[in-house]
Amino acid sequence: MIALAALVVGGGVSAALLVTADPSRGTVEAYAAARDVPAGAGLTQDAIQLTRVSLAGGTSLLFTHRDIDRLTAMRAAHDIAAGQLIQRSDVMSSTSIPDRRLVLIPLSAVPTVPAGARVDLLVIAGSADHPTVAPFALGVEVVASASGGLVVAVPAKAAAAFVFAGATMHLAAVVVEPGAADGAELPVATADDAMALAAGR
After folding, report:
1. In angstroms, how far apart are the furthest CA atoms of the chain?
2. Dist. CA 147–CA 90, nearest whole Å
3. pLDDT per position as a tens digit, 92-144
């Protein structure tokens, strides 16, 4: 009986050691480039492949097998080398501007916005007694959240306008829900305007 118990215990220890030593523990499958992908090219099925990787910080910045539809609807934001793990910052929407520039927009209250989402930027102007809120730019692509603001992608010819707005205007960001229609925000200059619009009138 003692010998049998020793065998059982020994087998249990061996199994535990095998599980602990299993190199697949703590790994995930994430997409990497199957070949060199030039900037602006679509991430088609033949351009990507699942690769098993070991990560300590999670997969929030990567694309896993559940993200295949989203990933294949995107384009490379810059040249991606074969074998490189594809991160959120490496891709852009298929509708993104090819000559885009990245601009930091300071915001007093920054919404939680993932990379690739879109926001409508509204400008708050007027005086303390008579404030106004009006659209500044609609459907702007967010590249990243930053301390005190959002990094957005804009056409090169509009970059100076966004820099000017960020430096001199009081801007607020409204997050666009995925799949939502283009923004149709209306300016608000009075409490009556706000109440009428909020009531759907």
Report:
1. 90
2. 21
3. 776 666 677 889 999 987 888 887 788 999 999 988 888 899 999 998 988 88
Could you tell me whether strands 100-106 and 91-93 are parallel, antiparallel, or unpaired per DSSP bridges?
unpaired
The residues, ordered by sequence, that sit 6+ positions from 50 with a Cβ below 8 Å of its Cβ are: 29, 30, 31, 32, 65
Q: Give the helix/strand (H/E) hosting 53.
A: strand 48-54
Instruction: Indicate the Cα dihedral angle 67, 72, 75, 77, nearest 10°.
Output: 30
- pTM comes to 0.54
Q: Please report the sign of the dihedral spanned by the C-alpha atoms of residue 169, residue 173, residue 174, residue 180.
A: positive
170 contacts 124 by C-beta, under 8 angstroms: yes
The residues facing 29 across adjacent strands are: 52
Per-residue pLDDT tens over the stretch 130-177: 889 999 999 898 888 888 899 998 888 899 999 999 999 999 999 888
Which residues 6+ apart lie within 8 Å of 87 measured at CB?
61, 62
Query: What residues pair up with 121 in beta bridges, in sequence order?
Result: 137, 173
